[in-house]
């Protein structure tokens, strides 16, 4: 019996009941949309952080390689100059 009452047409509801139900559905829909927007913003923020970290690692690697090559070049030139001066 209960299932038949739940599936009864909404025409049996009073206009006030219909209005209350409509407002409740609209409030639930607004909450759902707000949650979806928040989730999308969180995913976007996580992707941006991940990209920033990845780019930071690449930049650090390039800087490290450049400094290492600079140190090697300076040491080689310094010793070549020293050998040239001593001869």
Explain this structure.
Helices cover 89% and strands 0% of the residues. The longest helix has 72 residues, at 15-86. The N and C termini lie far apart (111 Å). The chain has one domain (11-86). The protein is built from two helices and no strands. The protein is mostly helical. The relative contact order is 0.04.
Number of helices: 2
Described by the principal axes of the CA atoms, the overall outline is rod-shaped
The percent range for strand residues is: under 5%
Radius of gyration: 35 Å
How far apart the termini lie comes to 111 Å
- Computed structural class: mainly alpha
Poorly predicted ranges: none
How many beta-strand segments?
Answer: 0
The whole-number mean of residue pLDDT values reads: 89
What is the string of helix and strand elements? HH
Largest sheet: none
Short description:
The chain contains 2 helices and no strands. The protein has helices at 2-6, 15-86.
Overview features:
mainly alpha, single chain, 87 residues
Give the SSE layout.
Layout: H1 2-6, H2 15-86
